[in-house]
């Protein structure tokens, strides 16, 4: 059973404001315990990064928050996001399938990014949809380093649009049957999430409050134009095979820029949908100490993402992305390894002490045995030249036998390899090229490279799984895959290549 935390802190660091929310779990309720907002000065002479983290320290101190662990998010524009549709996949193969998809979808080597994935609702005919997100590791390291500079730590880095979406879904402040969108208008960037029946699509763009304040009506029109383009993109990517009018039925606004005078009426006029404000506290209980602060103007509009962050770990949420998941798992494994190492050192020390005591007690007996061995060595030295001559003759004979063995053994091994591949090859997959070498030493491995074509990615996945299950192969790795059009039939086929070790099993 999944365990949830008792308290959590969401920290949303924007370009103009810093927002902090502390939530507490009590029975079946989640309580808004504390919150705070700090404005970052506009003075260009100041070191903005340094001032920002000084203000975070002030927020924690002013709200008497002792916990030093916070949940944070990366800006939508700094994150790479893809939505994929999965065919029927067994639960025990899902992680492997998502890693395969990530290698194809993310335009960077996986060792250079922090990445994670989350399933969306099941689609038609049982097919599943998933979101894959990635961010460069140097950005993650930078965020952690800045938190550490003010003695804070984090176990979670989410994406701002997904935190916004989780806040809306948790508070049930939307119509999931309608085509809707929730939009957080910040100072420099806007996060937009389009949703329907559990399937979502996200986009971030640099048209926000600062541009509207600068250009007024033109800025509003640019923002509305981005919304219209986003709806077009949503229908183009065809996540739900949507039909009918490309029109939003519901638009939910939040963020500091959402309260700009005249914006709601202009959106309603252009998009023919009346916007409504997101209530991030709709299902939360509010402690007495924070109730009066929530009555201040525009407070609710700025805390949606921070609430979504703080909800992580307190309640099950619709989409859970954490760029630190693999890093935390690796850190745990390293701690376990360190513990085992320390225990091994202690055990080794005990063994050394025990062995030393035994050696002292048994020294006299061993001295007698060593004297006898010396006499045997003298005898051996007499016959050593004859033994070496016989060993040289034996080596010549072994070399001749090895040549014959290699010729026969190599043929037998390749026949066995081809037989195994033929037996496990799915009907939807065919091999176009094959190369490799094998070792004739027992329990040693050679290499085998396969290239081929398939009717689907699932067929490739099944073939790879079968190869991994065969005792003749290990370290089976897909190298590449791509969809191409067959010149003869015009159908789409999957071209792939795989490499693996060929194991020569000893008798």
Provide key terms for this protein.
five-stranded mixed sheet, 12 helices, Nucleotidyltransferase, domain 5, flat, 4 domains, alpha+beta, 507 residues
Q: What is the 3D shape?
A: flat
| Estimated radius of gyration | 32 Å
What percentage of residues falls in helices of 4 or more residues? 40-55%
Q: How many domain regions? A: 4
Percent of sequence in beta strands: 25-35%
**CATH topology description of the largest domain:** Nucleotidyltransferase, domain 5
Number of helices: 12
Oligomer: single chain
CATH C-level class of the largest domain: Alpha Beta
Strand order of the largest sheet: 11-10-9-12-13
Q: Which residue ranges are poorly predicted, with pLDDT under 50 across at least 5 consecutive positions?
A: none
The average pLDDT is 85
The major sheet is characterized as:
5 strands, mixed
Q: What is the number of beta strands?
A: 18
Describe the structure in your own words.
With 507 residues, the chain is of the alpha+beta class. It folds into 4 domains: 1-172 and 281-323, Nucleotidyltransferase, domain 5 (2-Layer Sandwich); 174-277, ATPase, nucleotide binding domain (Nucleotidyltransferase, domain 5); 334-416, no CATH class; 425-503, 2-Layer Sandwich (Alpha-Beta Plaits), CATH 3.30.70. It is built from 12 helices and 18 strands. It has helices at residues 48-62, 91-105, 137-149, 160-170, 209-215, 217-237, 263-271, 288-294, 299-302, 304-311, 325-424, 457-469; strands at residues 7-13, 17-26, 29-39, 69-74, 80-86, 113-122, 128-136, 153-159, 180-185, 190-196, 199-205, 250-254, 276-277, 285-286, 429-437, 445-454, 473-485, 492-503. The strands form 5 sheets. Strands 11-10-9-12-13 form a 5-stranded mixed β-sheet, sandwiched between helices. A hairpin with a 2-residue loop joins strand 10 and strand 11. Helix 4 crosses helix 10 (304-311), helix 5 crosses helix 6 and helix 6 (217-237) packs across helix 7.
